[in-house]
Amino acid sequence: MRVGLFIPCYIDQCYPQVGLATLQVLRRCGVEPEYPREQTCCGQPMANSGCVEAAKPVARHFAETFAAYDYVVGPSGSCVSMIRNHYDDLLDDAAEQQRLAGKTFELCEFLVDVLKIDRIEGRFPHRVGLHQSCHGLRELGLARQSELGPTATPQVNKVRTLLQSLEGITLVDLARTDECCGFGGTFAVKEAAVSCLMGRDRIADHQQAGAEVMTAGDMSCLMHLEGLIKRDGAPLRVMHVAEILAGNQP
To answer: pTM (2 decimals)?
Structure first.
């Protein structure tokens, strides 16, 4: 298979170690992805801010950049969801949009659903809290949503499945397993007070559960939470799930 490695712009600019960890994980799983250097943003910041016309050429560029690949894989549930669920408003060709949506995957989703991997060799002897980001959970279906109730159809938690296979790891039990962190892109700017309160609620939940490390499949959520953690001096580290699966240590 020919796999295009999609590294979101904020990871490329602010957290390059997450992009490198994603590459390492894919290689360990037998995939040698290609990184098209001409890739840019997926267009989500513009679209979420209501600037749909500004997002259209960005989406067009993305579609053309990754057209030749069998799969597109990225370490971001929100960016992958943007491509898969919201490009119908940005691309004129519906068939092209459907092809792109059908081959674009979040990292853990790709490992579990496409490569059929449920175990990663490695060791991470730490207490870890899993923050399940809203886009990955509710738009990509990476786990079952708690609001659906106990009668909902059971669903594999794809991120947790891979994490719990690591030797020595302890995944702590949170009081609220899938509550929003409050980031929401420009929401954190427009409604900063509410955003920070939501973020501190999530941090408190992880601390009360005894987590040493907070992880997630979206570095944007972790960026927001890490800012609050550092400001408050909380004894908690954040790591993207790709970093943990790659064997990095806090």
So the answer is: 0.94
